[in-house]
Amino acid sequence: MWRLKAEGSDSSSRFQKVLLAAAVAALAAFVGHTYLRLKHIMLASRELPVKHLNCHYLQNIEYGAEDITILKDGLAFLSTGLKFLDLPSFSDEPGKMYVLDLLHPRPTPVELQIKGELDLSSFNPHGISVYTDETDDNIYVFVVNHPHEASQVEIFRFVAEDTLVHLKTITHPLLHSVNDIVAVGKESFYATNHFSFPNQALHFLTMVLAMPMCDVVYYSPSEVRVAAGGIMSGNGINISPDKRYIYVSDIIDHEVDVFERKKGEQLEYIKSVGVGSLCDNIEVDHRTGDLWLGCHPNSMKLSNFDPKDPPGSEILKIKDIHSEHPVVSMEYADNGQVLMASTVAAPYEGKLLIGTVFHKALYCDLK
Ligand SMILES: [Ca+2]
Ligand SMILES: [Ca+2]
Ligand SMILES: [Ca+2]
């Protein structure tokens, strides 16, 4: 009896050891997989050749212009001073909005005065979009705002020359980690979430396991719902000049996803175009339909910020995105000595504005 019991406890302790060894091996394999996956996602080994354009720094922009968009009449809007997750930020001041007239002989950004109920001390503007109401020419400026790390959308009306009148704040459980928006009406928009879930640990797991679970949300005053899913991490979003297609930058998948707008504002997935970089915001040339992308060539250098080995900047263009063979070309590249952490490139009649997360902004000549 005693012997039997001793044998039984021997084999159960052997079993426990085997289990423990299996658990350690599984954990080591998971850690190894996570390390390789993150290295791949962040393009941690990538170095860029430098390709410059004829550019100069924009005046008054010292703390980033995460997003920039330009109206057909040459009026550019910029969101500046973003504080976001653990990314660097060199200003303790709240964020600001600027406007810039590209038709002026010496375009200079002017700070927009914000009127209304909005709390300016916690204003933290991120992605932006502008909608012009063609019935009365009113201009509505939509801004993703992260006051105290929250996620909400502000709608303003632009009043010439330098005023934004705050109209409303939109919050919704589906809009839990909004990165960028594209307005499709004076109160309606599509928004990308950069996390799959409000819980960041769960989102991290989906990234490591390569399970794309981020979505695009459609908002109007009468309805809020998921319009598209299957995205690893949604970032920039924009619309084709004919308003038929929506483009989303799936930043950690290194691709741009193309969707077609269907009845009831549902989005149908068409295809993805690989870009080989971590692309942030998307601007569309209203004349050619080309996509311009502000990208992070190596996001390891962005998260482990070191001024001696700074994060670079990369601007890509996609031509003929709806054809069988879209052409992706590098239009600008810098190792961070001139410009760190580009997020957006907005073209206008042979000119290009380039914005960044926390650094300066460039005004470039494409001709
Ligand atoms: Ca935008
Ligand atoms: Ca994808
Ligand atoms: Ca962005």
Gap between N and C termini, in Å? 93 Å
Report strand %: 35-45%
Strand segment tally: 25
| Major beta sheet, strand line-up | 6-10-9-8-7
Kindly give the count of domains: 1
Radius of gyration (CA) equals 23 Å
- Shape annotation: globular
Q: Regarding quaternary structure, how should these chains be classified?
A: single chain
Top-tier CATH class: Mainly Beta
List all distinct small molecules, including ions and cofactors, that are bound in this structure. calcium ion
Order of helices and strands: HEEEEEEEEEEEEHEEEEEEEEHEEEEE
So, CATH architecture? 6 Propeller
Total helical elements: 3
Predict the CATH topology: Neuraminidase
Largest sheet entry: 5 strands, mixed
CATH superfamily grouping? TolB, C-terminal domain
Model regions low in confidence, pLDDT < 50 over at least 5 residues: none
- Helix/strand structural class: mainly beta
Protein name: Paraoxonase
Disulfide bonds: 55-364
Catalytic activity: a phenyl acetate + H2O = a phenol + acetate + H(+)
Organism: Amphiprion ocellaris (Clown anemonefish)
